């Protein structure tokens, strides 16, 4: 994908590395974060969910933070891509909010390209979680070493697959800005038996929003990009990742077919079509 080089005046980026310190969890984003472990390692998400809160309380997390955005963004190919992608996402969603009369609602997220462990407003995080978004500090957390694992999972090393991951986490930021995230969490608390199904809706909408970003920038898409995105979406479907070890009732992110379909829906470039995904009574 042909994105313009990043401008550090237009993005908020930092890099945190593992070190001493104890995080205190506040319980936000648990359902989103808990399932990431099996995305990379095939762990049982139900077991992971049961330990997330304890991990947030006890994980030894970041002691060093680099806030020199130019240096952070130029530290590797993956970092440069992430900064280019973040700038494009900011521009696209800022324009989208303004076009719909909500310019005052839009706020850029921060991006933390951490390594090892990290302190977040949602508690302690680690590379084992994979990329995640914390609504409490409105920050996307990515250890870029995940992208090498993604390449193995998706069967390609294309840049669009990596942009898709970033755009998906940015989709969770959009959910925070629109209030969808807090609404769904409230419903999950009142309907605990539907918590996983509601989590699936959140993830599929984030996939759809990732597609919206790409759809609104079709002039920058290169041959093979869409196929790379679809392969990545299919590779991280619950049914593919768990290989039948987790029942459909315990899925938290959706099947490969559902995730691919949500991404394809978003590629039409109309974010309003994504809104219907999380409309629950």
From TrEMBL:
Pfam families, per database record: Zn_peptidase
Keyword Transmembrane helix: yes
Lineage top rank: taxon: Bacteria
InterPro entries noted in UniProt: Uncharacterised_pept_Zn_put
Key words, A-Z: Membrane, Transmembrane, Transmembrane helix
UniProt subcellular location: Membrane
Membrane topology: Single-pass membrane protein
TM spans (from-to): 20-41
Membrane keyword on record: yes
Annotated PANTHER family: INNER MEMBRANE PROTEIN, PUTATIVE MEMBRANE PROTEIN YPFJ
Protein name per Swiss-Prot or TrEMBL: Neutral zinc metallopeptidase
Organism per entry: Qipengyuania psychrotolerans
């Amino acid at each position: 994908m042909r994105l313009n080089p990043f401008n550090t005046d237009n993005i908020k980026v930092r890099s945190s590395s593992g070190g001493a310190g104890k995080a205190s969890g506040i319980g936000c984003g648990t359902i989103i974060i808990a399932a990431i472990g099996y995305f990379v390692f095939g762990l049982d998400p139900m077991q992971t969910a049961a330990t997330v809160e304890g991990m947030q309380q006890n994980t030894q997390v970041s002691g060093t933070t680099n806030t020199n955005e130019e240096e952070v963004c130029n530290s590797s190919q993956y970092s440069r891509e992430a900064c280019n992608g973040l700038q494009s996402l900011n521009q696209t969603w800022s324009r989208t909010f303004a076009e719909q009369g909500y310019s005052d609602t839009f706020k850029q997220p921060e991006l933390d390209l951490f390594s090892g462990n990290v302190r977040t407003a949602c508690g302690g995080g680690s590379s084992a979680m994979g990329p995640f978004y914390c609504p409490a500090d409105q920050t996307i957390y990515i250890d870029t070493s995940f992208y090498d694992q993604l390449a193995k999972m998706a069967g390609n090393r294309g840049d669009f697959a990596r942009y898709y991951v970033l755009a998906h986490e940015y989709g969770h930021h959009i959910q925070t800005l629109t209030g969808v995230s807090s609404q769904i969490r409230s419903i999950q608390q009142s309907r605990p038996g539907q918590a996983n199904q509601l989590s699936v809706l959140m993830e599929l909408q984030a996939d759809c929003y990732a597609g919206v970003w790409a759809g609104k920038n079709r002039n920058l898409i290169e041959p093979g990009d869409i196929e790379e995105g679809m392969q990545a979406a299919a590779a991280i479907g619950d049914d593919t990742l768990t290989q039948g070890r987790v029942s459909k009732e315990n899925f938290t992110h959706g099947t490969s077919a559902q995730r691919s379909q949500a991404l394809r829906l978003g590629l039409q470039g109309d974010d309003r079509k994504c809104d219907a995904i999380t409309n629950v009574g």
